[in-house]
Structures are given as C-alpha cells and as structure tokens.
C-alpha cells in the first residue's frame, strides 16, 4: 500500500495543451470589423508603400495562388476579384490582446505569438474548475467567436508539437483532439514537413532521402539519424514519435519587463533610419529603468518586415544596466544581427527584461569611479530635462526624431 | 423477472414481463474524466488510456461524448475498438456541427460522421442526436430534422429534445414510423425543457439520460455545476417504479446513461440503479 502511495505521488499529471489558431489573422480581424469583406477574396497589403508586398490573404486568394510576401501587383493579377485593404497593426495587436484575455479565464499558463492569432494554453490540472479539456477548448473557441467575431481552429493534445501539427491539418477551420497515447499513430501517416521547428536544410534532407511520412522517419534509430542530422538526430527522433516535453514559453509575463516599439509611417530599408529609431527606443527604456531604479540584463529586438515575417534576436550581459549608451550599444548589435533580409522593415520592438534593483557598486579605483559618477550625473541631467520638457527636448546624435 | 447470472455482463439486467423481456444496460455519458480518478471511481493515477478498460469492468455500455466536440474519425475509433473490452457497447453523440452549430455544409459533415463511426457499427447501440434548447418546433427545424434522420437511415438513432414544443403526438407517431427512439430525460424542472413523458417510440430500444436535478447549477451556465448532482437511493427507487418499469414493458432493450459526472456520481448512481432494479426483481 505504501508503495502504491509513493507510486501515485510521483505519477506525473497528464498534460493537456490547447492550440488556438486563427488562420489568416489579419484577414480575420478585418472581416470581423467590416462585414462587407466577408465574402470574396481579400488581400491585406500596405497600399501606400512604394513596392507593396502582400502581408496576408484570405483562403480564396490563397486558392488563386496569392502568397505572403508576394508583390501586390502580381497578387492582384492572379486574383483579380480580390479586395485590397491596408494593414492596421494596432487593430491586430488589440485583437490579439483580447484573444489572450479570453484565454486567461481558463489558465494563467499560455504562450502567445506576436499578433498572429497563435496561442497555446496549458490546461493541465484545471478539470475540477472548468471540466474536461475538450469542453474547455470548445468553450474558449465559442467565447472567441461570440466576443471577437473570429472563428479559431482549436486542437487538443498532450504536447505542443502534436497540437500544432493537428492545427496544420485542419486549417483553415475545424478542431482536432489527439488522445493521450495516440500521438505516434496520429503523426505516422503525415508528411514530415508538417513537423514544426525543422530547419530548411533538414527539410531538404528529408525530401532528398524520400522520407515521405513521419512514420517512416520514426523507423530510424537516433544513431541512424545521427549520420545525417548530427546533433539534431535525437530531437528529430522524438518529434517523429510525438514526444515533446517542452513547457510553454510563457515569456514569464509576470516577470517585470519594459518594452518600446515603433511603427514606420512607410516601410523602410534605410539602415540608418532604423538604427536611429533603435537608439530612441533604447534611450526611452533607459530613462524608464532609471526612474524605477532598475537595471536590465537582457535586451530583445524584434524587426517586423513588410511580408509579415519577423526576426527576433536577444543579447544578455552579466550585470544589468540602465545606462543609455550601454543599452544603445547592445541594441545596435542586435540590429546588425537582425538585418539579414533585403525586405523593408515595417516596425520594431525593443524589450528589456531580467530586471533587478540598480545597485551602485563602488570601485576600488578612482578613475572608473569618477567616470561612472560623470555618467550618472549626465543621465540625471538628461532625465531632468526630459521630465520637464518632454522626450524630444534633448537627444543623442543619430537618434530618430518623431 | 430473472436474477443476474454469474457470467452476465456487468451493470445489465434482464426484466421479464408478460409480453416478453427487456434487456437493460446501465452506464454513463462519457468515461474519460480525470475527476473520476480524483473521486475514487478509477484507481488514483489511472491514465486516460487505461480508463475504458477499467470502465468496462463495471459496465457494459457507454455513451461516447467526444464525438460531439469533434468529428468522429475512423482510424482512432478503430484503434479504440481494438483495445475496448469485448462486451462493451456504445452510444455515440452526433457531432455539434450537426446539432448545435449547423451550417450550410451539414450534409458533408453527416457523410464524414457516418464514415467516422463505421468501426463502431457492430457495437453501436444508438446515435444520439441531442438538439439544443433553441431548437424549437418551427417549419425550418422540422424540415432539418427530417432530412437529418433521412441521412442517418440504416443506423439506430435516438433523439433528445431540449424544447417542449416537440412534445406532441405527431412527433411521437413520426418517430414510431421511423423507428427512432425518443430520449427520455431526467433533469431539473424548467418551463421550456422537454418534459419527462416516458414515451417509447421504438419497441427495439428506449434510451434514457439522467442529467441530475441541480436546478441552480443548470441555470449557472457552468458544466461543473450543471451536472453536479448525486441521486439519492429513494429518488432512484421512485424513478424506477414510475418511469423505468413502464418503459421496460414496451421495448426489448433499454439503455440508461447517467450524465451527472462531475464528482463521479454518474458511475455510482448507475451501479446503484442497476442494483435497485435487481432488488425489485427479487
């Protein structure tokens, strides 16, 4: 009996992960707010841009061959019946925030994408409060439909991997429940290209090796896969068997963080202009950190491009900083790392986290201490000017002007 | 009436009456509830995968309700049938896109459903068509229901109404003509809810669902409150005498499912009712 109790105590609770996915999120939001857009093909693209690219398109337009990132002129030739509307990013962010808020009624553990209609919820152990996980999934989707006028896909599985593949399977509408223990059976007949997180070279490899199903991939041992996929073999082996122990990346929303973002009036490929904006964002974060007597150890920069894609890079330092030029230098390094695509930038976001109380460490040596003192006084003066006369009253050289 | 044999499947009773006999199967609406492990019906730590076989030790019939949330799919259902105890028989709820969330594509959905439940075929007790409270007896709804039943032809079908406007002789006569079972419901008394009439429209099968009598919970909009109810033995005895016994005299088979699942009252009550029926035979 005692053994049984120990056994029970260590039995991990079955996980229940819901994936909510609004297909063609920008289109869905536009259609939710304008009923006249609900019938017929729809393309979302920045009409005012010099060479506008498709940001999002409806299923009908997709059926006619329109794809994200395609030149709008080409897209409208392929789908002549399409209506074209300009993207409204603030609207998409608000819709995403509302989606997240609805979801928070059911669990605090969720992983949300950036205004893209993707959301994972971990509802493990909530059955006493809200009932069985299928009921929660259905109710959440119903709430979203009623309050946001958007119809999401929902899937339910024991992990993110399987829930996400199930979403890809039922897109653009529908639902899928993959029962615990069914993961491998569910994946086996599907194309391995449906597996999330595959790199481009891995996808090419799978095609070259004629591995047409996930079941076929699962037949290889990790050692066999290692000959082709190297250090990724073990991960691929797990993926092929529906094994995914990763917790949700909640971004630890409760952990303090500061972020600033900027939307360019016109999409831009001017590096200096973007660098100027990044400097402004870093200065704004620095100002706020100092006001709260905090310092941050990690910066994250996200660039969003005209074609709807985004690139995110992070950089950490051992000791936190609230000094403008240190934050600016980190941010500029991140910008260099993000600046890899020849596509115009639509907006950027700088986030500072891993915050801690700002403690001034006295130096044993005179000169650095004096320099630090000078910097502190300079920043204090800057902050005083900003407080009295606004953020634009005094700026760094190269800083973007609003 | 006959006493249960040693090898009789669990939670079944055969009632003999003047016109023949009625085989009763007791069970629950759904079986995959983690709460049932918390509440002691399943041994602590029972995994979802092991629940159906554990359920089968106590019961011979179960109503599958996950087919309401998502379209039935043949492959997973086939695997489920392979693992399920051989004596277990199934009711299967019709998908919500054919009852609560109907749209213009419903005929395609119906085809998909028929294909999806194919592996159940030889162990299928009935397809449960549970219609929502807003589905009242209008011309549009009558036409839809008639077309839906046409589309389900060849399958055993039971229909549960949640609106009282359907409680008329014409409806019962049409069900008799189609050999469709009218679901008898035990639920809190609410003004618009279909009343518990005990009408048997199909002599081959009557179908009962006991939802519990939690009036406040029913109005709360919360599933966890709506079906949180524990029938007392006296309530079940009275229900057995006044409703179950007369229905059993009119059909050769009856299935009785409990839906008050929240704290595993459903399996306890189902076993309790089976015992009460057995006692009444003694």
Please tell me about this protein's structure.
The complex is a heterodimer of chains A (402) and B (282). Chain A is α+β, with helices and mostly antiparallel strands. In chain A, 43% of the residues lie in helices and 19% in strands. Chain A contains 16 helices and 12 strands. In chain A, helix 5 (89-104) packs antiparallel against helix 7 (133-148), helix 12 (222-229) packs across helix 13 (233-240) and helix 14 (271-291) runs antiparallel to helix 15 (324-338). The N and C termini of chain A lie far apart (71 Å). Chain B has an 8-stranded parallel beta barrel. Chain B has one domain (12-281): Protein of unknown function UPF0759 (TIM Barrel), CATH 3.20.20. Chain B is built from 11 helices and 9 strands. Chain B has helices at residues 34-38, 48-56, 66-69, 74-83, 106-116, 139-151, 169-178, 215-220, 223-226, 233-248, 265-281; strands at 12-17, 20-29, 61-64, 89-93, 124-130, 157-160, 181-186, 206-210, 253-258. The interface between A and B is medium-sized, with 24 and 22 residues.
């Amino acid at each position: 009996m005692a053994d049984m109790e120990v056994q029970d105590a260590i039995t991990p609770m079955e996980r229940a992960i819901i994936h909510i996915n609004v297909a063609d999120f920008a289109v869905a939001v536009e259609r939710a707010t304008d009923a006249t857009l609900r019938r017929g093909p729809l393309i979302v693209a920045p009409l005012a841009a010099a060479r506008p690219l498709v940001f999002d398109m409806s299923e009908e337009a997709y059926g006619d061959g329109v794809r994200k990132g395609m030149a709008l002129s080409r897209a409208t030739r392929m789908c002549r019946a399409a209506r074209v509307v300009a993207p409204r990013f603030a609207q998409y962010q608000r819709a995403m925030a509302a989606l997240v808020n609805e979801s928070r009624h059911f669990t605090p553990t969720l992983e949300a994408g950036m205004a893209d209609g993707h959301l994972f919820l971990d509802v493990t152990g909530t059955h006493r409060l809200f009932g069985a996980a299928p009921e929660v999934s259905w109710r959440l989707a119903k709430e979203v439909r009623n309050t946001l006028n958007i119809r999401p896909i929902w899937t339910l599985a024991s992990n993110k991997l399987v829930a996400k593949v199930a979403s890809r399977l039922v897109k653009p509408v529908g639902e899928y429940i993959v029962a615990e223990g069914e993961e491998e059976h569910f994946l086996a007949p599907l194309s391995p290209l449906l597996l999330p997180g595959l790199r481009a070279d891995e996808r090419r490899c799978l095609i070259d090796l004629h591995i047409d199903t996930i079941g076929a991939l699962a037949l290889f041992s990790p050692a066999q896969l290692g000959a082709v996929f190297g250090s990724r073999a073990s991960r691929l082996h797990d993926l092929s068997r529906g094994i995914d122990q990763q917790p949700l990346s909640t971004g630890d929303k409760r952990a303090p963080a500061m972020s600033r973002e900027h939307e360019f009036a016109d999409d831009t490929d001017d590096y200096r202009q973007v660098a100027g904006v990044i400097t402004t964002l870093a200065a704004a974060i620095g100002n706020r950190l100092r006001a709260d007597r905090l310092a941050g150890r990690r910066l994250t920069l996200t660039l969003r491009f005209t074609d709807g894609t985004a690139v995110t890079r992070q950089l950490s330092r051992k000791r936190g900083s609230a000094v403008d030029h240190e934050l600016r230098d980190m941010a500029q390094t991140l910008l260099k790392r993000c600046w890899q695509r020849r596509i115009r930038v639509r907006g950027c976001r700088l986030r500072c986290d891993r915050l801690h109380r700002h403690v001034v460490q006295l130096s044993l040596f005179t000169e650095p201490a004096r320099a630090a003192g000078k910097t502190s006084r300079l920043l204090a003066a800057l902050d005083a000017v900003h407080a009295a006369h606004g953020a634009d009253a005094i700026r760094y050289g190269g800083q973007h002007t609003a | 009436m006959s006493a249960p044999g040693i090898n009789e499947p669990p939670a079944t009773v055969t009632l003999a009456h003047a016109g023949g006999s009625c085989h009763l199967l007791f069970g629950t609406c759904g079986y995959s509830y983690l709460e049932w492990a918390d509440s002691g019906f399943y041994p602590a730590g029972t995994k979802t995968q092991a629940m159906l076989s554990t359920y089968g030790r106590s019961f011979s019939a179960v109503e599958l309700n996950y087919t309401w949330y998502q379209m039935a799919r043949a492959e997973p259902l086939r695997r489920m049938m392979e693992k399920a105890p051989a004596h277990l028989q199934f009711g299967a709820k019709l998908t919500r896109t054919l009852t609560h969330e109907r749209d213009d594509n419903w005929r395609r959905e119906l085809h998909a459903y028929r294909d999806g439940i194919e592996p159940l075929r030889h162990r299928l007790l009935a397809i449960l068509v549970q219609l929502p409270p807003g589905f009242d007896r209008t011309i549009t709804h009558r036409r839809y229901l008639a077309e839906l039943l046409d589309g389900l032809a060849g399958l055993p079908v039971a229909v549960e109404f949640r609106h009282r406007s359907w409680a008329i002789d014409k409806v019962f006569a049409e069900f008799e003509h189609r050999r469709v079972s009218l679901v008898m419901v035990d639920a809190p008394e609410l003004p618009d809810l279909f009343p518990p009439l005990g009408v048997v429209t199909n002599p081959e099968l009557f179908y009962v669902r006991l939802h519990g009598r939690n009036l406040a919970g029913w109005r709360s909009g919360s599933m966890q409150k709506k079906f949180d109810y524990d029938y007392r033995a006296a309530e079940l005895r009275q229900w057995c005498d006044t409703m179950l016994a007369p229905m059993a005299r009119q059909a050769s088979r009856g299935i009785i499912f409990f839906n008050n699942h929240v704290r595993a009252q459903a399996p306890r009550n189902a076993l309790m009712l089976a015992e009460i029926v057995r006692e009444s035979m003694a």
